[in-house]
């Protein structure tokens, strides 16, 4: 008998199949960030920002993990400390006995069939991707040092509040708000924080806003593919077991995404006369986001309806409302507000309509279903939940950024903004296309200010470097 067999014999709560599924789905979600969103960002941005954009995601993934095990997990899933927050403290997995022990969520009185180490890692990858999504709105001008400070602060003072309130047994959970896999906790939170933060940080350089063509569409598509298939773990892992509900969640996720992508593409053809691969990726993302709060709760036909809605309503938000004077004042680089805040809120509200009684029972939800079951009160609860998440992020995010701005600049210098990656990291994404060493030397000199002319502008040899 192996040592693991002896341990299993003393832990009757452990289901090795569920544990294997949970670790697998956690890995899928982790791959959505690293390398998924890293390469998506690196491909979809202007060439001069490829390294910086990927690095923001790379750093966030690492920083969130350390904060998560040291204090943020317990604030999100630990003993209740306030109606919207768990008691801060190090997760029990920092000791080997705690890591091997049974995973529980005390505030919701939930016992799980896998160890605490699995639960801590599974929930970490969701926390990490939330910060990675926020980065998509700040790309192209945020000071990397300010980003390094922002990540642990936002995780601590915003993510934990939303997470505990809805998933950790807090007041919204007790009310019966439905959020199967993070339409509110992750996407609505990320989108509202990103949009508010973009307002505080300010816009990119005008020439970057006017000319921000993707530098590598195949690389962007590689990231998009990792996002799509990684979402099987994103939504398939949240029943916390390898049961029938997980299969329903995976199928509905893919059905809604396909419907959304095609709807977005058709609208592009009708109004812009051409199908756009970038537009199709936006439709893919909104489809993944909209089904997330109801993935295992709705029927297949409901997933199709939600996909059509997510391919059209966020399309209008981005291509009609997003072109208005008010929206253009806020530089949301990759449109995170439209693809995550709008789609996340839409998904939460539609879950309040299309959630089935059977789906809620399979998920062990407190709700009996949505409007189609006669429970229209669920739609009201979803509205309250969405308002709370928006309010938290609209208040907390600016406070954090203004505070950080008192310590370090929120934005890169104008000289660094002209250069991009070579200036802020001393590296270039595609150095083999040009004399990379010369560009990096010029960037370093420009950053020091020694090549700025009397008007505070870089000379032509630097401004001529293509982004």
TrEMBL record:
Keywords: Ammonia transport, Membrane, Transmembrane, Transmembrane helix, Transport. GO terms for cellular component: plasma membrane. It comes from the Eukaryota. One of its GO terms (molecular function) is ammonium channel activity. Pfam families: Ammonium_transp (PF00909). This is Ammonium transporter. Residues 20-430 form the Ammonium transporter AmtB-like domain. InterPro entries: Ammonium/urea_transptr (IPR029020), Ammonium_transpt (IPR001905), Ammonium_transpt_CS (IPR018047), NH4_transpt_AmtB-like_dom (IPR024041), RhesusRHD (IPR002229). It is a multi-pass membrane protein.
